[in-house]
Amino acid sequence: MAALEPPVCEFGKPAPDFALLGVDGCTWSLADCRGPKGLLVMFICQHCPYVQAIHDRIVRDARALQSIGIGSVAIMSNDTAAYPDDSFVNMRLAAAQHQYPFPYLLDESQNVARRYGAVCTPDFFGYNANLQLQYRGRLDASRKQAAAPDTIRELFIAMQTIAATGQGPAQQIPSIGCSIKWKTH
């Protein structure tokens, strides 16, 4: 499976709205997920080794971001018929197992991933309080294995800066991961 990197950050691009079913049975929108200082939108799944390597770090950083006014949401957009590990049932299990402190949503139509321009899992989009894109980088130096515990928390530091200033860092290292599994029909 080839690893993909998303394109560079399109600073200022507005966050597309959505209405998606969460593993909690509720329908969530962009407004429901945002925090007063911004929003982190993550495209993740269960089967990707790049995501598996950082589940604990995603949870850690989402909790820390929540405390500074940044909301977080995770969206799963893969073709669940072709990739049953990413089914809604398995999404629920993953959210419970890892104690996600954020909504975990199913993008069954894949329209939300297309509107965001998501290309891989994990793919991170960091927005300021005005829901303008300011970060499109990686979580940290982790790949298919977690990086050292003391590795620089790139996404967290970027989102801290966005919460404080509204602006993301000029230099960003793209995330890397498995491609979104697009439906063929």
From TrEMBL:
Residue ranges of domain Thioredoxin in the record: 9-161
MF annotations from Gene Ontology: antioxidant activity; oxidoreductase activity
InterPro entries according to UniProt: AhpC/TSA, PRX-like1, Thioredoxin-like_sf, Thioredoxin_domain
Residues forming coiled coils: none
Pfam families named among the record's database cross-references: AhpC-TSA (PF00578)
Xref: PANTHER family: OS07G0260300 PROTEIN (PTHR43640), THIOREDOXIN-DEPENDENT PEROXIREDOXIN (PTHR43640:SF1)
Protein name per UniProt: Thioredoxin family protein
The organism of origin for this protein: Methylovulum psychrotolerans
Highest classification ranks of the organism: Bacteria, Pseudomonadati, Pseudomonadota, Gammaproteobacteria, Methylococcales
